[in-house]
Amino acid sequence: MAQVTLRINGYVYTVGCEDGQESHLQAMADEVEQRITRIKALGGQSGEARLLLLASLLMADELHDLKTELTQGALPSTDPALGRRIERLAERAEAIAESLSRP
């Protein structure tokens, strides 16, 4: 199992992942960082947990919109695996958002 050190909102996190998935994990961390930057630009500073929660919710909302567009046929999809992948991503994002909302 590989270890990746990620920097999100100035904090360093070491996360394990499957070998060969390091660059993918870093890309996902970059996506989270982009959303945190957008949130901070809109309303200033918040606590770390709140920023991560809001970033997770933004990502879940984006996935939900993509999923809705796919099911309504708004996006051309020639690859049925794409829909399944988006579904799995949405489920993972929702699970993360749910875990962050617990005390």
Task: Summarize, please.
With 103 residues, this protein is of the alpha+beta class. It is built from three helices and two strands; from the N terminus they run E-E-H-H-H. Helix content is 66%, strand content 14%.
Descriptive report:
The protein has helices spanning 22-43, 48-71, 80-101, and strands at residues 2-8, 11-17. By secondary structure, the protein is of the alpha+beta class. It has one domain. A two-stranded antiparallel sheet has the order 1-2. The model has no long low-confidence stretch (mean pLDDT 83).
- Provide the residue-averaged pLDDT: 83
**Based on CA inertia axes, which overall geometry fits?**
globular
Gyration radius (Cα, Å) is: 15 Å
> What's the structural domain tally?
1
Series of H and E elements: EEHHH
Number of helices: 3
Total beta strand runs:
2
Q: What can be said about the biggest beta sheet?
A: 2 strands, antiparallel
Trace the largest sheet across and list its strands. 1-2
Structural class: alpha+beta
Uncertain spans, ≥5 residues at pLDDT below 50?
none
Q: How far from one another are the termini? A: 30 Å
